[in-house]
Design a protein that fits this description.
alpha+beta; two-stranded parallel sheet; 2 helices; 2 strands; about 45% helix
Length: about 55
C-alpha cells in the first residue's frame, strides 16, 4: 500500500463519477479526506461555493 500525505490543503477530495472502488475508499480513510461519488458537475459546484467563502 502506498503512503499518502496531504499538507496545507484547504480542500482535499478524492472524486469519482462512477462507483468508488475498494482502493479508493482505503485511500480516503488512510488520508482522512472526503470521497465524493457524484455526477461530474456537482463537485465543481461544491468547490466554487467553497472558494466564495
Amino acid at each position: 500500500m502506498h503512503t499518502f500525505n496531504i499538507y496545507g490543503a484547504d480542500v482535499a477530495l478524492l472524486v469519482t463519477t462512477g462507483r468508488s472502488t475498494g482502493p479508493a475508499r482505503q485511500v480516503t480513510r488512510q488520508c482522512r479526506i472526503a470521497l465524493v461519488d457524484r455526477p461530474a458537475g456537482v463537485v465543481s459546484a461544491v468547490l466554487s461555493d467553497r472558494a466564495r467563502r
